Fold each of these.
Amino acid sequence: MILLTRKAEFSASHYYWNDAWSEEENVRKFGKCANRNGHGHNYTLEVTVSGEIDAATGFVVDLKHLKEVLEREVVSVYDHRHLNLEVPEFKAAIPTTENIAIAVWKRLEGKISGASLHRVRVYELPDLFADYYGEL
Amino acid sequence: MKAYFGRRYTLSASHRLHSENLSEIENQAIYGKCNNPYGHGHNYIVEVVMGGQVDPETGMVSDLVELDACVRKEILDRFDHTNLNTHACFQNLVPTTENFNIVIHDLLRTAFMKAELSVVRVEETSNNSFEYPVANSFERSRGAHSRGKGSAA
């Protein structure tokens, strides 16, 4: 068993807002992240897969395939978009770093040939990230 | 769903690796230049990973402002710009980064109760890093492997 990690980047805007709360509660809980005009980040995505090394190729997964899957399933949907307004999974879930990591996992699960998803890590800033391992 | 929230902090501190239980020659042989008599310093990076269910109301595992305040009070205010050897916790413990990592973990585990402290990772330099406890990483990877089996398209 070996782990392989591929990075990708996307830039997107978002805001934090819970419709069930008053404006005052949203501002108190989320601070400047509750500004309804939104703000943005350069996100870094790290996708780690696990698997056995193929004896014929020496690969655990074809990196070109993994890159294409990340581009198709995640980057092309999130990059230069407003996550709250343009990405369907964030109509019902606040696009926090935790929820983005979970959403990326759901987008990738079952799409990577020959390897299993091990971890999705999303950096919102170099000093702030979320990890999801597929746990309930 | 259970996710993990990670935050990185930096602190600068000095230390000297020296054990009273070893001779001068043994200390020099084991610790090398880290045993030089007047100490030296590092810019440490402390990475704190909290685990827990994502709160459906906030989309968060842990309140960032509360975590930052706790780490500031318990770790940064205590250790930043200090000599680690002078702290009570290192009077009988060599302030290697392994031991520093465990000290930080134990302080945070009892001070921050709003989410489960999953792991603390400390970088001493960009070439050296330490992680404690290790068991949590393996538990998570076991869970992911069993769920991920046969997921290939």
Note: Chain B touches chain A through 30 residues (CB under 8 Å).
Amino acid sequence: MDFRVLLASLIDGLMLGFVYGLAAMGLTLIWGVMRVINLAHGPIIALGMFGVYLLFIHGGVNPYLGLLIVAFLGLLFGILIYALAVHRVLTAPHLSTLLATFSVNMMIIGVGTALFTTTPRNIDISLGRLVFGPVVLLGTRLVAVLAAVFITAALYLFLYRTTLGKMVRAVASNRAAAELMGIPSSRVLALSFGLGTMLAAAAGGLIATFFPFTILSGGTYELKSFVICVLGGLGNPTGALVGGLILGALEGLIPTFMPVSYVPVIEFLLFVLLLLLRPQGLFGER
Amino acid sequence: MWRSGSWWLTLALLLGAGLSPVITGSATLREDMFLILMLITLASSLNILLGYTGYVNFGHIVFFGLGGYIGFYLMHRHGWSLWPATVAAGLATAALAFALGMIILRLRGAYFALATIGINEAVRAFVANFEPFGGATGMSLNFAVYQAYGGAARALWLAYGALLALALITVGISFAVKHSKFGLGLMAIREDEDAALVLGVRGPQVKTLAYALSALFPGMVGVLFFFKNGNIEPGDAFRLHLSIETLVMVMLGGQGTVWGPILGAALYERLRGYLLTSPLFKNLHLAFAGALLLMIILFVPAGFIGWLRARFPVVRRVVV
């Protein structure tokens, strides 16, 4: 095995891993705060892709500026989803929240397919490339990595340094006690759900700058997010980023050893095994 | 069970509806009923795990697809007849579920639900790479195969008859489970698993048995469906969406009841057929189904039958 090829694939995979991790962070945040698995995660990623795309094509907005707008819209959309579909069933059995978020998934996919069809789209931008020997770093991916790191840092600061972030963590650890301390838990939950969808939409926007996509593309990233969340520990945002890197590295390296179609087989076997052997994730729950 | 009027009523209704294409000899009616009976079988078998035991299974369709593949493989590569292939595929999926269940049923709640999604995807990706099953392109039956059953037209009627019998058996098992000690154990687990364990329900064994039972029927239905279809490929066989549509059917009719999945499957199929053909909703049928699902979950979580039973206590003796 040529070491140079291996290194190039590894770095390529790791760079994708940052974005995967960002998407998974949205899922894991929602789980961590309210024990809801957001099955509308994939379509929201796809909406993020389309948001950046439409702003770019029709409004001429730079994709990275568009990303900010899309992230904000993602926050509002998440709050709306929470209010309409999640709030009422939060205390019901798991089946209800799973199906409620899945119904949102169906609605987005249904309307999205009718509006955008399933023709692949892509955002045609290039930010040049950096070449270090065998390793080629595409500009768009480098920016995506920086954006992912920046958003993660911002989320961390928000959760640990601001009052609102502390409220989110208080509600996550004990909703009843938080309510007794005067925290408006319903509003905090709505905000947390919005933050989760915001991360998903932002990740989608970043992915759109380097891969072609359709309204159905989110499904793949949703499944990847599940794997990553379990790798990093459900409910642990920093774990999600590390999990994303592990998954990205696997995706980079596996194709150098066996046919690329085996990647999902290995990913999902790993996923089921992890659920069984270490359901708290590699780094535990936080 | 044999002395229960409710069971005879269920049987008579299902048999009447199922025999209507045979009596009229209409092929279009048969195709409609084939789909409905298939969905009834899938929904009723899912209900054993979802409704009675309270475990959310997103991977129910794995057994449908895998059963279809095993049966298809036996017919296609080894020249088996449809009947032994169907039984063998059903037993194989049940055995697989039994083995799998011993492992993954240790997980509870959302973790179990996630694991079932993972299994669905892993199996689909594996089958797409598995050469004996034709890899990503799948397998196709030679048209001459149908000669053994007296021509293609007759083979379709035979497959329909087999499906009708299978649907009746599934509903019968569903009824029997609900009214047995085994079913009571499952429902105790649904209400409070720890309490059930303390009271002497043999949790792991009972759950695993329920999982295997719920996997037996989709495996057999898969063979009949793909035999009728003539070809099988990974995308068709393991559609995560069909899994979830089956969940919607169970929810729509009423989880944990015998009639719920039957009614839910028939209603959902009719509704989807209507939406797909109406010019207004044609492109939006998925969105519409999603909105319907949300309404059910938010406002009628017990489903139609559950609501009926709660609202009119009189019907409880008939509607189970």
Note: Chain B has one domain: 5-317.
Amino acid sequence: MNYGANEQGYYGDFGGAYIPEMLYPNVEELRQQYLSIINDADFKAEFDQLLKDYVGRPSPLYHAKRYSEKYGANIFFKREDLNHTGSHKINNAIGQILLAIRLGKKRIIAETGAGQHGVATATVCALKGIECVVYMGEVDMARQAPNVSRMKMLGAKVVPATSGSKTLKDATNEALRDWIANPVDTHYIIGSVVGPYPYPEMVARFQSIISLEAKKQLKEHTGKELPEYVMACVGGGSNAMGMFYHFLDDESVKLVAVEAAGKGVDSGHSAATTFLGREGVLHGSRTILMQTDDGQVVEPYSISAGLDYPGIGPQHAHLYKMHRAEYVSITDDEALQAGLLCCQLEGIIPAIETAHALAYLEKMKFKPTDNVVICISGRGDKDLDTYIKYFGY
Amino acid sequence: MNRLNQLFNTKKDNLLSIYYTAGYPTLNSTLDIAEALEKSGVDFLEIGFPYSDPVADGPTIQHSSEKALENGMTLHLLFEQLADLRKRVTIPILLMGYVNPIVQYGVERFCKKAAELGVDGIIVPDLPMYEYEKLYAKYFIDNNLSNIFLVTPQTSEERIRKIDGLSNSFIYLLSSSSITGGNLKVSVNIEDYYKRIKAMSLKNPAIIGFGISDNKTFTKACEYASGAIVGSAFVKLLGGDGYLDKIPEFVNVIRG
């Protein structure tokens, strides 16, 4: 099976570049140039060096012994939470800033949900001395206030998105509008595997370091490079795509993608896209999205700002339709409980996004010999307020 | 040949088109506004069907779209409202909207229904040329609907030629790369761009849109193209009281 994109940027029925003509030159420039740039030896050397010395890669693959005992399998945590800036988002931000410089761009824009991608983008812009504007939903700015301050400290301008649900989808709309108005000097660093082609493919490639390392590390731990299960949470789906990438063609590896059910899939307050969505077009690609019968995008809900998105990346839509990965969902309550459990069993405070993936361990049936790799996509410092309020610490 | 083709065959310059959002300011205002615009001497109309995430639109049309959705406008309802369209309005009508509502309605069904009601053309800003050619063109052609493509100052000559080949009524020339509702800044660069397009001797006439808001910008646009489209400036008028009575004066002021 081929799970990648064809020349027109389609993963089966999904993908493409549904963009207004105003964005065509920018997106076309990227499409024509990104592969030759990222395959260039000079790019690779700088990318690898920054991932090593600046981000702190490789991120450890940690054998979580108390989790393994509890769930009756060998459970490994891929520790993206230990990256500089606290999540996997930095992998893509480094890749795209190096690309933007080679495209001659002078200004960077980005959207952010939880603020992790915004912080990662502000960080690499500081590193390279480039102007940075981050769009963030007004609601998200309130619930992820520490990350707003971080971005400002790093020299970025944070612009509130005040339309619609005032969350990630609206921040993405505003970033796209900015890009339309600034077509020549600006590069848009999209933070997830969404958007018009080549973004889903490009972001997946930058994140694929996660599974590249994990394969090697698992072999060191167990003598086998293929686990039985690979698990990750999915909003737009970038940590999941990075975690799945080098396992896609190994059909024996079961891939589990965990969406945010919010207050419950049927509650009317959910972000479980594959359960509630239908095929359509969102943010420049054909994918699965939550929408009304009239084709209006539904405002999603999750306690986790990073999963509060009404669609999934087009490659995820393809993996879902082909049954290559299993898409499941976890509620706010289940995620928060799992987050606390991870603190108390392993001494790791996970991001609430990540806690969704951890929570699904409760619903899995493992054999004692199973090896399970789960992506710890981010650390929970940014979520302390939410945890503290929920548990009353 | 649809009404749009007939119009462009007979009138070559100073064409004025007006855009507005169906369902704004009130749910049932769509046809009353169309009728008033025709009586005021507008040459053709663009009726927008609202979308929740209009990325190519500025604050004015974002607002009218949001209000229209709140008022309960849907594509189904718009088609019901347009049942009397050709009893009340004779000028060419274009529908303008984003691709997702069309995908949900069904492309073939959408084209059939639009044609049946007397619609002449469609503008879908986020429908790319590749997808149009591959999946949409046959339904547009079968139903005698013109598809209108946008061209910006950054569009290459090769691509403009391709767009010209796929068009059969007019090409929508953006005054700048911007979202709707911006200010038209007529600079040397923009004039060069208009001149460049004019010198290409395209088979389709060009109509300039985005940033056309008054007589000055309309007149300037008409120097280089067959006409111009006013959108946000008109939608702003609809936000005030007694808008139907103000339409003739609005059109007169634009025309000068």
Note: The first strand of chain B starts at residue 15 and ends at 21.
Amino acid sequence: MRPLLQVSGLTKAFKRGGRGVPAVQDVSFDIGPAETLALVGPSGSGKSTLARLVTRLIEPDGGSILFEGEDILRLKPKAMRAMRARLQIVFQDPGSAFNPRATVSRAIADSLKIHTGFSQGERRTRVRDLLERVRLNPDLAERSIHDLSGGQRQRVAIARAMASSPTLIVLDEAVSALDVSVRAEILHLLKRLQRETRVAYLFITHDLGVVRAIADRVAVLDDGRIVEHGSAQEIIATPQSPTAQALVAAVPRLRLQAQ
Amino acid sequence: MSLAQRISRAPEAIAGITILICLMLVALSAPLLFPGDPLAISGTPLLRPFVDATHWLGTDRLGRDVLAGVVHGARTSLLVGLVSAAAAIVLGSVVGTLAGFAGGLLDELLMRVTDAFQTVPGFLMALAFVSTIGPSLMVVVTAIALASWTAPARLVRAEVLSIRERDYVASARAIGMHPLKIAFREILPNALPPVLGLSAIIVAGAILTEAALSFLGLGDPNRVTWGGMIAEGRAVLRSAPFLSIIPGVALVLTVLGVYLAGEGLVEATSRRSRA
């Protein structure tokens, strides 16, 4: 099967005090349709940079990103904006991911306005529809994002990402800011949405407990490079690299299972 | 707590808004209170205030009613002050947003233009502008706007620079929103509150600049202005000081009202953002 996303040789350095500090170095991986690839690594390993590179929110210094067979780094701004319908991202902090003035319905309808020819009435129906799909009360539509809890906001963020019927969603630490019970609910929701729509996830996290719950495959990132690659079970049961071993050791219940 | 409630807790805001509302009522009802041309001669010249019931604040050197002049002058002052400040804020916001959001060459270009405008004293620029093109209300408004758009431009740019790195701007890009729409719909509204704080100072400054232009004889000659009245009274300052003092007091009251209302409004909105 042809991969949905094919990243090869991706490199990015940030300028700090006149020198380039490498953030991502020669990273390659691919994701198939309806697959979940977890990208794990300690903080500072370049995970979030990679999330923004893959969604082309920042431009890489080198490498290529083939998405649905097209090199998105070569797309002109207009074509890129159209492509974004199928390539979405959910950020870590649901508190800052929304315009502070936005209502729930505006946050979601903006995406519909850009990517569909729906009338205002159709958009309203679709917003309620999407809210139901992320298990939120459709009556929340006219509320301000400010009034919602962290978990509810993250559901709205997922609804916004789902609005344009994407084939890949990058989840950048999307459950890390949530408390444990809410986290489990959101993971459950993500799995259900994947079954329903065959969307693929690039799941970025530092928490292997989350990885076990959702990922098919895992790539371990350290210092901007991929140091280990394998199925989720393999890496949790028999981590090879010191980075992966440290990440496994950081989750007590995983360590117990590994013994 | 609603904005109205927060304002009602700030005494300076109440004072300022009361002054402004009274002024606006007076300005709006000027044609009813004093129908006819306020520049027309209506009585004995140089009548003192509080002696004649028909000319309550007296008359000037030509016998024009001072109260009618003050009331009609309020129209000019408020109109020029509000319109030119609004124009300055709109222009400054657009320039600041584009510069801050686009960055690079456009930012450099717009900021150097801003520098150029800022290095010329605002009042001199307005003076030069009006004396070249000729005094009319439109020209005066344009001149004052051109002299005062730089401060909001810089402020908006600084705000935009900090806002454009936030996640919600990245979110807007991620859903494929057009950059101009991101700049003006997602970023600008969130960059405005500090500029609105500045707006009171801009309005007050605009009213004073208009008065100063009129004082120098560069106001619209077909309109009564407070600055013009002060200039007019200057010739008889020793014998009839009230001719300059009365419009002067009106000017002070207006600027004070604008300033207090602005302060109170900023206070009230910042209380919300802290909550």
Note: Residues 6 and 53 of chain B are 42 Å apart (CA to CA).
